[in-house]
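Hi R.,

As promised on Friday, here is the backbone we talked about, encoded as structure tokens. Could you run it through your design pipeline when you get a chance and send me back a sequence?
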């Protein structure tokens, strides 16, 4: 046993109580396997997949809430907040949504009707429990001058598909907070496009309350400067900011190495320094940032252990595979 495991381990969410909520993405397996860790260190959860369209309404009118309800019950039992993720996205949305019974593309009105049904049913079910929803996920195109990603939502409904989603959600639960969520949110070019979209929504009085920065980052990218600029730019719209899917990959995006069975000491050291700097920055913006959610909780389970290199292990979190605090954890909690 090292000295560090013998000293008392502070609760991450208690340390950050005065700053922002500390969240984790979960699924029905991790609320079992990581139960103690989650209950101790996190005061907010997000369903990793179980509230996406394909999970909640795999067939028209046939809603399957079992797993989502299990996660919501876990949050209630542990007095955690819950973020909802996600109502409108180009991925993990079943094909039936965009087709009529002859397999033809639905009309704008039909699609808006289906969307309204879905959003109303889902948002009302968790009214009073889910305090905040990622309403639209990843609508902005990564590269080039065009603003919008090409999706069936855009093709069939048109550009107002985004504001309509916020309006349906707000009508279903006027007390909840509604966010626009995206990745590569700190990249200068994409940042300006996200800003432009969100500003247009704010200018039109669309019920949007915040911007979700997914924050799938690594040891070097994005730069702290770009993160800071992104935070300031989005916050200048007067909206709340959430980091919604934070993880710090030990690999650069183009790094295809797949032979490491454990992280190198150098990776862990760089990761600890990176977390130190990132949380230092986040604390500076505590007036705007109200929630920081990791896309997982500990290194025994992360989507990055399959992406972008299939089968490659990654170690992106503050807790190791045995749920013990890493140096990264100590850097994040020891700042007073
Ligand atoms: C995006 C989505 C998440 C999740 C991750 C990968 O960031 O918003 O729901 O699917 O990709 O796991």
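Update: got your reply. Pasting your designed sequence below so it's all in one thread:
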């Amino acid at each position: 046993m090292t000295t560090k495991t013998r000293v008392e381990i502070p609760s991450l969410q208690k340390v950050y109580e005065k700053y922002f909520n500390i969240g984790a993405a979960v699924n029905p397996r991790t609320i079992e396997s990581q139960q103690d860790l989650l209950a101790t260190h996190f005061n907010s959860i997000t369903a990793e997949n179980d509230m996406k369209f394909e999970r909640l309404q795999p067939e028209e009118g046939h809603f399957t809430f079992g797993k989502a309800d299990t996660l919501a019950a876990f949050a209630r039992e542990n007095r955690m907040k819950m973020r909802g993720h996600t109502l409108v996205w180009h991925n993990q949305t079943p094909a039936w949504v965009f087709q009529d019974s002859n397999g033809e593309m639905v009309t704008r009105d039909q699609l808006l009707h289906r969307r309204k049904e879905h959003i109303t049913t889902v948002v009302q079910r968790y009214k009073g429990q889910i305090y905040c929803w990622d309403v639209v996920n990843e609508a902005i195109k990564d590269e080039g001058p065009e603003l919008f990603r090409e999706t069936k939502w855009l093709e069939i409904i048109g550009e107002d598909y985004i504001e309509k989603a916020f309006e349906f959600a707000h009508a279903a639960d006027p007390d909840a907070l509604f966010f626009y969520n995206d990745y590569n949110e700190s990249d200068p070019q994409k940042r300006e496009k996200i800003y432009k979209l969100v500003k247009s929504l704010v200018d039109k009085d669309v019920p949007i309350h915040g911007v979700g920065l997914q924050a799938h980052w690594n040891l070097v990218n994005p730069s702290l400067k770009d993160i800071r600029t992104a935070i300031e730019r989005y916050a200048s719209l007067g909206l709340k900011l959430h980091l919604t899917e934070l993880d710090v990959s030990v690999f650069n995006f183009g790094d295809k190495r797949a032979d490491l069975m454990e992280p190198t000491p150098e990776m862990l050291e760089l990761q600890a320094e990176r977390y130190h700097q990132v949380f230092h920055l986040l604390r500076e913006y505590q007036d705007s940032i109200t929630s920081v959610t990791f896309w997982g909780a500990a290194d025994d389970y992360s989507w990055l252990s399959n992406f972008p290199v299939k089968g490659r292990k990654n170690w992106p979190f503050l807790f190791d595979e045995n749920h013990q605090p890493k140096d990264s954890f100590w850097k994040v909690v020891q700042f007073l």
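One thing I noticed while checking it: The first strand starts at residue 21 and ends at 26.

Thanks again,
M.
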